[in-house]
Amino acid sequence: MSTSASDSQPPSGTRGLAATAPGPALGLALEECQPRQLDDYDVVDAIVACQRQMAHLQAVQARMVQELSGRENYAFCVACEDTEVDNAFHTHDRADAVGQELSPALTWTPNEAKNHAGLAIELVEEHRSVLRALEQGRISWNKARIIVRGVSWLHDAWLQAEVEDRLLEDAPGMTERQLHRRLNRMLSEADPDTARKRRAEGRKKRRVCPPVPDDDVTGIASMTLVGPAEDLAALYTAVDAGARALRAAGDSRNLDQLRFDLLCQIGWNALATGVLAGPEQVRLANRHGRPATVNVTVPITTLLGLDDQPCQLAGYGPIPAEAARRIAEDAVLRRLLTDPVDGRLLEYGRTTYSPPRALKDFVLARDSRCVFPTCDTPSDVCDIDHGIPWEDGGTTGASNNHPLSRGCHVAKTLHGWSIEHLDWGGYRWRSPAGHTYTVPPEAVGPIRHLARPEHRRPRTDPDPDTGHQTDTGTDADTGTDPDSDPPPF
Ligand SMILES: [Zn+2]
Ligand SMILES: [Zn+2]
């Protein structure tokens, strides 16, 4: 593939596509080319040219993101100057602020948008040659990320530039995985200490990710553990040995099933007893004043087996009626038929700032996730926010309280977002740039049937003001767990 920035003449015939640098001329040529009239060889070239053009546009987009990040709405917030805001709770990051703005606009989760914005800013400000390679269509966005994140482990600027240049030479002809391998080898050659530092950092970032629904089968999910290999090996070896022992003793389940069941049994036992057994007996933390539970919302008729209406597993989504009834047989089931059906009964006015138990229960049942348009954080790990702040005369009640993840709470309190509760249920958000997004009310279990039969929660909803679509079904915002710190607001 030969490309150069200066070579931006319109192609003469389709044979020119492979030689044309990305930009307006290539864009026009691609729009006008008729794939049906091309031979196989040329169609391959046209497909590759599209790829280069898309990379080029990502570089163009990165410059726009970086430009926006420097503007007043995103570059600063009150926490930067106001000493009354406790900085321990908030270190301002313009990539976060601009990412939040772009999240519903691009229908990416807040975390996806923040990571994207962070890389865009770094590319434009610190990694010019990587940005240039992207702009020329020589590397993809993912390869740019691999290179930038990789060389950031080197603290010597000269070494960084050296490694970056060598990677950029090879990257166009490599898969992402090959590039990863080359990068790892170069990093340990450039600085043997890097491997140790990266391992320490990887160890620091060990985590258990929340379950992610399987796209194909309702009620099936997968879960990822990331951390030191030896710890995971210990867990797997133990579960495997237990499974083999049960199998040898005549259990009819296969080894995969037994390993899974043994591991999940740890969770069910802990929820039943309130204690997570292990070398340290850990008493489970409460969430919003309730013991930790797996919450399902089940219509009474379904629980009684009269019908099979869809049920909701809190923080996760729909599960089949049969699965919900299985959970309901277990003693840890709590919330069932206890949800008030009329939110108007739950208005406490100015009598109390912190939401009473009945209100919390109602809010968490009404909104099973953070109510930001693109955020999927389960509501039981969210803060309960006052839409109109208490200091500004806001009341405590179903018409002003809603769950917000910590990241979205910061966006609203410090970064210029506002939220309005709509009369018909649902919410209207307004971004710092002035874009508005409507979040329709969520359809959950009995509430849907008794209170708002006319409003199901659609996947998309065009906003009357901007025509923007909001998407409410994306990955969870796995930001800071709000339970680990008291909220700063
Ligand atoms: Zn800030
Ligand atoms: Zn959120």
Automatic annotation (TrEMBL):
<feature type="compositionally biased region" description="Basic and acidic residues">
    <location>
        <begin position="459"/>
        <end position="468"/>
    </location>
</feature>
<feature type="compositionally biased region" description="Basic residues">
    <location>
        <begin position="196"/>
        <end position="208"/>
    </location>
</feature>
<feature type="compositionally biased region" description="Acidic residues">
    <location>
        <begin position="478"/>
        <end position="489"/>
    </location>
</feature>
<feature type="region of interest" description="Disordered">
    <location>
        <begin position="188"/>
        <end position="213"/>
    </location>
</feature>
<feature type="region of interest" description="Disordered">
    <location>
        <begin position="437"/>
        <end position="489"/>
    </location>
</feature>
<dbReference type="InterPro" id="IPR003615">
    <property type="entry name" value="HNH_nuc"/>
</dbReference>
<protein>
    <submittedName>
        <fullName>DUF222 domain-containing protein</fullName>
    </submittedName>
</protein>
<dbReference type="InterPro" id="IPR003870">
    <property type="entry name" value="DUF222"/>
</dbReference>
<feature type="region of interest" description="Disordered">
    <location>
        <begin position="1"/>
        <end position="20"/>
    </location>
</feature>
<dbReference type="Pfam" id="PF02720">
    <property type="entry name" value="DUF222"/>
</dbReference>
<feature type="domain" description="HNH nuclease">
    <location>
        <begin position="358"/>
        <end position="410"/>
    </location>
</feature>
<feature type="compositionally biased region" description="Polar residues">
    <location>
        <begin position="1"/>
        <end position="12"/>
    </location>
</feature>
